[in-house]
Design a protein that fits this description.
The complex is a heterodimer of chains A (329) and B (177). Chain A has 329 residues and is an alpha+beta fold. Helix content of chain A is 28%, strand content 21%. Chain A has a domain of 100 residues: Enolase-like, domain 1, CATH 3.30.390.50. Chain A is built from 13 helices and 12 strands. Helices cover 33% and strands 14% of the residues of chain B. Chain B has a 5-stranded mixed beta sheet with strand order 2-1-5-3-4, with helices on one face. The radius of gyration of chain B is 16 Å and the shape is globular. The chains are: A alpha+beta (329), B alpha+beta (177).
Amino acid sequence: MKAFELLRPASLEQALELLPKPADRERVRVVAGGQDLYTEMKDRLIEPDQLLDLKRLAGFDRLEIDGAGNVTLGALLTLSRVAEHAGLRASLPLVGEAALSIASTQIRNVGTVGGNLNQRPRCWYYRHPGAHCLKKGGSECFSKEGFNKYNAILGGGPSYIVHPSDLAPALVAAGAEVVLAKKGSSRTLPLEQYYTLPRDGDPLRETVLGSDEILTHVRIPAPAAGWKSTYLKFKERGSFDFALASVAAGLVVEAGVVRSARLVLGGVAPIPWRAKAAEEFLAGKPAQPATWREAAAIALSKAEPLSDNEYKVALSQNLIERAFTRLTT
Amino acid sequence: MRLLRLRVNGDVVPVAAPSHWTLLEVLRYRLGLTGSKQGCDKGDCGACTVLLDKKPVLSCLTLAALAEGHEVTTIEGLTPAHLRAGGRGADPIQDAFDRCGALQCGFCQPGMMLSARALLAKNPRPTRPEIQAALAGNLCRCTGYTQILEAVELAVAESGGAAVQPADGRRGARGAS
């Protein structure tokens, strides 16, 4: 990778001072675990002059659960610690399951919550140093007409990347919020609104994070009484891989009837894809296999597969049925 | 150029390296510790696995400058640490890999053994699926996984489950040496 200056601020205030002006956004990169960022730098997709390491910041690597069951994840928490936290696994199993499904032990030991949520796409055109695609400021998304086995079936256009995070669909399903700090203030917004579709925002980015902001925390509200949840991920390779498709599902069932449901799909859209129509359909329906099948069909009814990824439709539907079956048997 | 003070295999090592060098590059090209392998160099293969504060990490995705203040263990440090702790012969994991023939070209072996070492420190009696999960980040392109899993199981069996103990120079039936 290209040489850079390594900055190691000792406080959030110092770190925020060191953030660049919007015009210099590409010059300075924030790094936590670096497990995605360094790969981009090695492939020379980005060549920052300065790297702003956050690991000396104290207090942003905690996992806290308050008396009411609300969870706060510091952005610097490693994915291993999220995956292994017994209290979190008990109350919000989908978050721990999603964390454990990410990459390998080595990467989870270093990769962070903040880094996972802010990682860049894995589309092979984006990752190929020779392909000047839409995501890198080019004029065309090559996956639309090219090799698109791993690309989006929902929410695509003009870019057809899929968001690679496993934690993001799980956290969206859990109703999480993110805290974004900037000099002198901070804002909190639902994680669902943190991600933007390429057609709604800047196709060069996946989130609304400002160049003057740092994601510092994730907050997950205490789950409702009786809420059960799970995260299912299908990988092309058993050992470790990104999701071809994944499902984050949550349910409250009372007396055999679904009271409320959450359903978010990963690996199939440029953002964690909330299947709202399926969620609405599920409320009030009997908790039985025919219901899950119908919900799965509804969730994928708007899918627009590309030439090589129609398999993701059936795969996602099967994962949805399996997830709800797991939650009710 | 930056002057780093790294703690590697129990020694404090002063070493000058550019800020953008990875821990793997410093280990191999400054310190001559070539046991950590440069495979894919971007987090896919696990050949560069080292222990950082006893946890397996990828040295190709760790900046050397950010390893300061942490304890780095490479494959070269396993047997010396074993001997310092009063053991005999090679580290029991290394001994078990040797006796099970858990190598073909050997390129993945240092990383495999360090991942296994970290697993047994945390979980002295892992099941086969737990061993597979712990080694999932280490790819063997010779596909010699069966002997590798057997080697870890041998080390577990001979440890009696508490902590992996010295193998005491015994040689198993499969061992070539």
